[in-house]
Amino acid sequence: MRPEPPAGAAREAQEPARLGSQTLFRGLDVIELVAEGPITLGDLADRLGLTRSTTHRLASALADRRYLTFVPRSGYSLGPKLLELGFRVRDELDLPRVAGPQLERLALLTEDTVHLGVLDRGQVLYLDKIAGKRRINISSRVGELQPVSSTGLGKALILDHDEESWANFFRSENGGQRTPNALQEWLTRMRSYAQSGYAFDLEENEDQVRCVAAPIRDVAGNITAAISVSSAAQYMNDQRMQTLTKDVVETARRISEELGWTGTPTPAVGAGGGARPVALGSGGARPTALGTAGGTRAAAAATVTPSSPVSTGTRKARGGGRRRKSGKAKSR
User: Are residues 15 and 127 both part of a single domain?
Assistant: First the structure.
């Protein structure tokens, strides 16, 4: 048998690795602190709890590799190398791949069909679909295009748009096939959805199929995609739809974080031109300053429920829309 090295020798061999890891983590700490804004060497050393000489050595090494830049009398700021890497990460992010594990988790949790979609030339493009375990068939396919105004995904994708944009989607997809009050009823629902951070499809796009949808945000806080949970109406009563909002919004939040979103509110154009904070909630209401055509709404939003007056209008006004015919969501 080979003799064991002395204990002291083993510790000495591990020491360089330990010191190397420590230096790496300190360098990362420097980058994260500088990311908060330009900072002088003295303030950086104080924040890190290190000596000025050690801090200067770390910052100088990062500046040499272009991770930091140094401006006299101003201090250190982030360097162009991080911008290059950031764009490379953004280009390499594949949305279905990033979202996949969360979609699988949501499908397993709900036992229903889960969709991922994006806005593509004014329509909803389905990027991914995970079939549920129930004995029904949701007639959607990856790669197909669907209307915006009648699908849960579509409504979730345009929650940050202003009311003029909402109305344009509705008119272009429905034309004169709806009653005179249908547009106003739909806009009322959209305002409620925008306040709550999720949207419903109450058999508007496909007979006997309902869904709950929520938006996915990118690093800038913009809606870049949406997810939905769909099932036959018999499995989607009003109470269950309301309960599902929590899981759907939470899943959308997790995917958003994978894309770099931190939850920091960013200004977005609201209805009537007002600005409102953008933030994914936990399924309930979220604060907003979204204006309406007749003025500004209260900042505290009411929770949207499928059976509320603003939602039941869907069933009454959907007579001539572009819904799919009944029988598409059939038992397998």
Answer: no
Tokens representing residue 30 in the block = 């420097």
Q: Return the closest-CA partner of residue 31 out of 78, 84, 66.
A: 78
pTM of the full structure: 0.63
Query: How many angstroms separate the CA atoms of 153 and 116, rounded?
Result: 8
Cα–Cα distance for residue pair 28/127, rounded to 1 Å: 36
47 and 22 inside one domain: yes
The pLDDT tens digits of the residues spanning 72-122 come to 989 999 999 998 888 777 666 689 899 999 999 999 999 999 999 999 989
Helices (H) and strands (E) in the chain, counts: 10, 14
- Measured over all CA atoms, what is the biggest interatomic distance in the chain, rounded to whole angstroms? 91
Torsion of CA 174, 180, 316, 198, to 10 degrees: 60
Q: What is the tally of structural domains in the chain?
A: 2
SS (H, E, C) 8-26: HHHHHHHHHHHHHHHHHHH
Is 2 part of a structural domain of the chain? no
Residue range of the domain that includes 155: 94-325
Of 139, 143, 138, the closest CA to residue 128 belongs to 143
Please tell me whether residues 293 and 249 are part of one structural domain. yes
